[in-house]
Amino acid sequence: MRFCTRCSMPSGGTRICGTSCCSSGCSSSWRWTGLPSAPCGELRRIPPAAATRNDAEGLTSERGGGAGVSPEASARQQRRTNVRRIVCAAAIITALAAVSASAQGRRAEGPGGASLLGLFDTNRDGTIGKDEIEGAAAALKALDRNGDGALGADELRGQARGGPPEGRRPEAGSAAGAAAMFEKPLVPRDDAEKKIVEAIRTMQQGPRYANVPDKHGRFLRLITEALGATRVVEIGTSTGESAVWFALALRTTGGTLVTHEIDKGRAETARASFKKAGVEGLITVIEGDAHETVKQHKDPIDILFLDADKQGYLDYLEKLLPLVRPGGLIVAHNMTPRQADPRYVEFITTRPDLETTFLFMEEGGVGVTMKKR
User: Per-residue DSSP letters for 208-259?
Assistant: First the structure.
């Protein structure tokens, strides 16, 4: 039973000690009134007149002793207090340890998961030397998996995920060394190829419209030459980078590229770039809305490359799929979950006459579909 410490009336609520008031409306605080050192389950009822006296005795016992308190009761109370303190201290120590470990992990990884020292210190001597500073741009560029010219947290964190154990990584565990091993620049075979590559580098310094990163461009060149493609159709010229990558292969296969661009300014920029690369004779630019201009095509297509309005991919494919030869490829750029049209994905992944795989999903996404023979 609980009683008001002033009016001795029974408490009307079931609240714990030290809140407020009794059923009589008195605003005084109230307390448990029982045996001074007894736990809550052992309280006894007492007359209201004794409430104030017993409450005072209980308060004295909570403070660790006093008149009328047995040594045994005082000892029990002290033990309970000590246990509470130990539990509290353990909780605080655990929390501090977790915070400290988290902070150390962040310091070790740096922003995004890869420390600056681990990224640029290729010889692992604990410092970033002159040569390593000069190579910093290449190391950072190697992390730009989606080719957008910027580094996001996911791209930086990617250096800390996966890969072989630390002792087995190239360059004694250097992230820059590991990236460099797989990111070697294209080595031109002859002067003509060197001229084309130089033109691509010049284009990359110009307006950053929608274009393909080097890794995707080299992939386009690879499949075109490996397939022996002689007729390539591209939807979405932009400023011409992807077309020039195709031209690297077409100059050896004896093929040609027809590319569609709706923007007149970009089409003119692309033509100038083709001339500078010396491949203008391999590429034909058709200006206008490709949803209409693709109707001009009548000849078989070896490779169809889609890099325009994503919601238009399905329409382009439905109009041109009959012209894609058996064994030919449909390559669709920007096939990430955020950018891809679900209708197009459904079309290329459920038809029995098509086989599709997705590549570079962390770097912009490329869908490669083969028309079965």
Answer: --S---HHHHHHHHHHHHHHT--EEEEE--TTSHHHHHHHHHHHHHT-EEEE
